[in-house]
Write a structure and sequence with these properties.
Distance between the termini of chain A: 32 Å
Largest sheet of chain B: 6 strands, mixed
Number of strands of chain B: 12
Radius of gyration of chain A: 13 Å
Number of strands of chain A: 11
Structural class of chain B: mainly beta
Largest sheet of chain A: 7 strands, mixed
Oligomer: heterodimer
């Protein structure tokens, strides 16, 4: 595997389900990001981890819970989501102190 | 706070014609500027970036962009597009006010007509 991978690529869940999104980077980076991409809207930064510590949380509802167990892995735990949470969730990584982020292909989430 | 405007949500253009995708940002104090491309069913990929130096920046796939400080713009251009350029293009800016996190535009879909 190379670059940034995300699983699953597609997820359909009910409002009462609990699920997790997984991101893995194979680039040796030490910063990781979760973004929400909705149609016709700018990318929304949700969480940033730098050196495995959360450094940014942009007022994201508590039904989204991130976890970064090491510098290569990032999870987004989901529970009691709303239909408006349906979107493409993108993971990215970078090297702290550099400016370029590398993105995974995303997880297309549909909440029924 | 910094903001980014991509004026066109879609730009249709004939194959082999030139194209310009527009990007304006709100604050001109010491910014870093980026264009990313998202091909269908893929993540975003860096096309080019401006950090300092020459205002004309060349990127991958024949794209270039020009930083215009007085106009607070960073428009993306290509002299001759190909069908493979069909994608969505995102402009992003970072500066001190955003703690150097990327602030994104809403994207422009480039539609290539045969």
């Amino acid at each position: 595997e190379t670059g940034v991978t995300q699983t699953p690529r597609h997820l359909v869940m009910g409002m009462t389900n609990k699920k997790s999104l997984k991101c893995e980077q194979h680039l040796g980076h030490n910063a990781m990001y979760w973004y929400k991409q909705s149609a016709k809207k700018p990318l929304e930064l949700m969480f940033v981890y730098s050196l495995e510590e959360r450094v940014e949380n942009n007022s994201v509802p508590s039904r989204f819970s991130p976890e970064c167990p090491n510098s290569s892995h990032l999870f987004l735990h989901l529970h009691t989501l709303q239909p408006e949470d349906s979107a493409l969730y993108l993971c990215a990584s970078s090297q702290v102190g550099t400016d370029t982020q590398y993105f995974g292909p995303g997880t297309r989430l549909t909440v029924l | 706070a910094q903001s980014v405007t991509q004026l066109d949500s879609q730009v249709p253009v004939f194959e082999e014609a030139p194209v310009e995708l527009r990007c304006n940002y709100s604050s001109s104090v010491s910014v870093y500027l980026f264009w990313y491309v998202q091909y269908p069913n893929q993540g975003l990929q860096l096309l080019l970036k401006y950090l300092s130096g020459s205002t004309l920046v060349k990127g991958i796939n024949g794209f270039e962009a020009e930083f215009n400080k007085s106009q607070t713009s960073f428009h993306l251009r290509k002299p001759s597009v190909h069908i493979s350029d069909t994608a969505e293009y995102f402009c992003a800016v970072s500066d001190q006010s955003s703690n150097y996190q990327l602030i994104w535009g809403a994207g422009t879909k480039l539609i290539i007509k045969p």
